[in-house]
Amino acid sequence: xxxxxxxxxxxxxxxxxxxxxxxxxxxxxxxxxxxxxxxxxxxxxxxxxxxxxxxxxxxxxxxxxxxxxxxxxxxxxxxxxxxxxxxxxxxxxxxxxxxxxxxxxxxxxxxxxxxxxxxxxxxxxxxxxxxxxxxxxxxxxxxxxxxxxxxxxxxxxxxxxxxxxxxxxxxxxxxxxxxxxxxxxxxxxxxxxxxxxxxxxxxxxxxxxxxxxxxxxxxxxxxxxxxxxxxxxxxxxxxxxxxxxxxxxxxxxxxxxxxxxxxxxxxxxxxxxxxxxxxxxxxxxxxxxxxxxxxxxxxxxxxxxxxxxxxxxxxxxxxxxxxxxxxxxxxxxxxxxxxxxxxxxxxxxxxxxxxxxxxxxxxxxxxxxxxxxxxxxxxxxx
Length: 382
Hints:
Layout: E1 3-11, E2 14-21, E3 26-31, H1 37-51, H2 59-68, H3 75-96, H4 100-103, E4 111-117, H5 125-137, E5 142-146, H6 162-180, E6 185-189, H7 196-205, E7 213-215, H8 223-232, E8 237-239, H9 246-254, E9 260-261, H10 270-283, E10 287-288, H11 296-308, E11 315-318, E12 336-337, E13 340-342, H12 357-360, E14 372-373, E15 379-380
Parallel strand pairs: 4-11, 5-6, 6-7, 7-8, 8-9, 9-10
Antiparallel strand pairs: 1-2, 2-3, 4-13, 12-13, 14-15
């Protein structure tokens, strides 16, 4: 079998890739760099000339080739490699007539618990209560709470000052805990929005509401700083969604900076690299919460990994797809039941892009060049 063509599909804020073969088998992948899709597409197009005529079964070799062929690396390159890698695994699974998880060692579970990764930043007590009670009614047993500061400055910055900021975030968590009761888990999404002192103070005080995860309390650039927060806060830290190679995760775990890691299958090098990261995490008694802020192909690829590893924590289910919002993007939607995603048993990654996906979901890239600003006009991290 040989690769004959590579084509790109833009839909919504997603970039999908189809890899064609002379056996009539088509693989489907998704790129992760949602803020720079055109640049990622250009990287995939550059890789295409090398892919044509190659054996799609040589997944590790192709992954290593693109990673090592030129000394430039970064999020654009890794997202391009990821999309290609996922599509190659899809081809191999289809050719052999098995789900990808069978090629990764077989199932370790029958379903995957997920949390609702809601994208709203509500602060009104009644709205918060209704929203999280509704998620529980829908069957979710866990959900994200945004605690990364106000959307825009108000009150002359008083809600951004140290004490006021911590108090406001604590109040959100308290309201949500009272709304859903004790049998529901929270992923507290700081989104890299706190300083080290803020993260430690907030992390200590929020312990009483028993959150499952404190996600990205600070920017992940300095692993030693993240380790400092982890050492002083009892709520388990999760980080890694910005990482783009295996070594970053190894250094993070070596410094005991997180109890959960967040590899993004569409950004870190695909299924090939994600599986290696999960193995390193297993050796360090660290659990995995795959980052999944993208489309149905990303979710499907995540499920293949979740199905085959022993150290899964929980899986993120992006807010964009809740309530069937993206079901028509694929021919057969993934199934959610009682707080879990069902693991697809179709060959490959388990989903096929709808032929009219680009028309149903017109391209609309997320993000902008305008950074968030604090009350005094200074730039804040995204």
